Amino acid sequence: MAERTGTIHDIGYRGYDGPREGSAALATQLFVTGLRHAFGLGRSGKSKILPFVLLAMCTVPAAILVGVVTITGLSELPVSYASYVNQVQSLIALFAAAQAPVLFSRDLRHRSIVLYLARPLSPSTFALVRWLSLTTALIVFIAGPVLVLYAGALLAGLEVGTQTRALGKALVLVVVLAATLAGLTGLISSYSLRRGFAIVGSVVMLVVVGTLVTIVQAVAQEEGLPEVGLAAGLFSPGSLYYGLADAWDAGVEMFTEPTGAWVVAYAAVSLLVVTGSVLLLVRRFTKAGAR
């Protein structure tokens, strides 16, 4: 038998003897990290430019409106909270399209998803936490300018109860819109591992399709076919948001206001989009983690 000549060197590694935290702590940390990364925090300086420039572009018009109301003494805001969200919807779509690949593409592209799932974290939990991170980031992004408007309205002396009720409706709608956008852009990004392709795919889905839906609704209204316009509104997250806001009397007016069964249809499609995209995300990460 040959004599062994190998030597074990002690280079200072120490064993970990602290508390072992479970999946909940891991998921919490993953959520916080994802939320920070959606705004470029904890990443390079270049990564912070786009999200904060878009946030500033959404917020500055709200600040200007606050100044106008305060100086001129208007008795109400020139635009409702829900309608303001619709006015900046293109910027919201760009934020979602640009930041979704950060949370859903990079780990798959670099195969680091295998390292994540080597820990006691299931693929379904990973997908849900990533979706929650992007949804929360979108809520912060959308609700920030709305809260600026609300604060300005109170400073201008507008009636508190009326403004608070309108703000409450707008915030509920913001949650629905954020959950929808996070699901769709996350799903596109999880399949388009190249960031550029993911952004283009999300922009086409949110901006191009949304514009086409608006054109169809305008033509349908002009031709006296409101049912066609209402049906077209089911195919875009933006028009779903607008239709629900109009039906809820949140201060917006669609080409044709959804009533009766159409309100149920708009709510059901919104719920279907959110649950369907989340389930597909879970399936995608389960499949990726099994390789």
UniProtKB/TrEMBL annotation:
Transmembrane region(s): 49-72, 138-158, 170-191, 197-216, 228-248, 260-282
Keywords: Membrane, Transmembrane, Transmembrane helix
Domain of life of the organism encoding this protein: Bacteria
Protein name per Swiss-Prot or TrEMBL: ABC transporter permease
